[in-house]
Amino acid sequence: MSDLAVTTAGLTKRFGSQTAVDRLDLDVPSGAVYGFLGPNGSGKTTTIRLLLGLAGADDGEAHLLGHRVPDDLSGALPKVGALVEGPAFYPYLSGTLNLARMDAADPSTDPSTRSERVATALERVGLSAAAGKRVKAYSLGMKQRLGIAGALLRPRDLLVLDEPTNGLDPQGTREVRALVRSLADDGTTVLVSSHLLAEVEQICSHVGVMSRG
């Protein structure tokens, strides 16, 4: 199990008569940039929500970093950062204040070191120069990087990114791509959901393809 950051066996999720995730077996090696590839509507986001405990499976099992989910989410989630279905921020607050609010929502964090954590996360994603700027003035690529910064407020062994380059212009795409590579170089396992084959080819070391669940 230690060689695999994410595993599922027979994972299944139904919505009424529709099977969104159909007996999925998934193995994500530790240290990989894993491309979770498939067209929109294939079940990728539902799978991610099952992995993170945001939805319950009807059958099968899943493990994150050796912890069975959802039974042991409290053991797994502190080591997991995620950006699912796009970031949401207070537009009239700065990047720094948005991240400070996110950090304050985590009851396990130490308020006395909050400023340091926020500054480190902003530097990690290349937003230190824009830290005091209101988020409403950020480009879409900057907002995506700020969302990733929020997922990195604590050290993470696994980062889950759902369509991180969706809707970005070429420059924003390059920024997020470079960030994913740098995170992987530091030893973080990254699971990247995408419907873009060319994007997965450029940044991923492993790939799994999903179609109709």
Q: Strand content of the residues, in percent? A: 25-35%
Alpha-carbon distance between the two ends = 24 Å
Q: What order do the helices and strands follow?
A: EEEHEEHEHHHEHEHE
- Structural class designation: alpha/beta
Helix count equals: 7
> How many strands in all?
9
Average pLDDT metric: 91
Question: Helix content range of the residues, please?
Answer: 25-40%
Radius of gyration: 17 Å
Shape: globular
Which stretches are low in confidence, meaning pLDDT under 50 for 5 or more residues running?
Answer: none
**What kind of sheet is the major sheet?**
5 strands, parallel
Spatial strand arrangement across the major sheet:
6-7-8-3-9
Structural notes for this entry:
The strands form 2 sheets. A 5-stranded parallel β-sheet has the order 6-7-8-3-9, with helices on both faces. Strands 2-1-4-5 form a 4-stranded antiparallel β-sheet. It is α/β, with parallel strands linked by helices. It has helices at residues 44-51, 73-76, 95-104, 114-124, 140-151, 170-185, 197-203, and strands spanning 4-15, 18-29, 33-37, 59-64, 67-69, 80-83, 158-162, 189-194, 206-209. It has 7 helices and 9 strands. The chain is 32% helix and 27% strand. It starts with a strand and ends with a strand. α3 packs across α4 (114-124) and α5 (140-151) packs parallel to α6.
